[in-house]
Amino acid sequence: MATSYTCDGCGATLGSGDELIRESRHTGRSWYCQYCRTPVPAAIAERLSHREDGSPTDRRP
After folding, report:
1. Do 19 and 3 meet the contact criterion of CB atoms below 8 Å apart?
2. Of 1, 23, 44, 54, most Cβ neighbours within 10 A?
3. Whether the Cβ atoms of residue 4 and residue 15 lie closer than 8 Å to each other
4. Residue numbers of the domain that contains 36
5. How many independent structural domains does the chain possess?
6. pTM for this one?
7. Is 32 a member of any domain?
8. 56 lies in a domain?
């Protein structure tokens, strides 16, 4: 399984949920690249949102 996703809009490598913008909608959540706001497929964004970024403030187990 891939551990990152390349944004279709700007080419940025998205490797964790910290690099995504999540917007709640009536029909669910929408995910966007933090750098260019290009939509990210939900299945990929959900997987990345649970990934640890390794920073000292990352509190996920």
Report:
1. no
2. 44
3. yes
4. 5-49
5. 1
6. 0.75
7. yes
8. no
At 33, list the tokens.
């690249």
**Widest distance between CA atoms in the chain:** 34
* Tokens (6 digits) for 42: 């939900």
CB contact at 8 A, 48 and 3: no
Does residue 40 fall inside a structural domain? Answer: yes
Q: What length does the chain have? A: 61
Residue 49 CA to residue 3 CA, distance in Å, equals 11
Residue 44 CA to residue 37 CA, distance in Å, equals 15
- Residue 11's identity, in one-letter code, is G
CB of 61 closer than 8 Å to CB of 50: no
pLDDT tens for the 61 residues of the chain, in order: 567 899 999 999 998 888 999 998 888 889 999 999 999 999 999 888 876 555 555 544 4
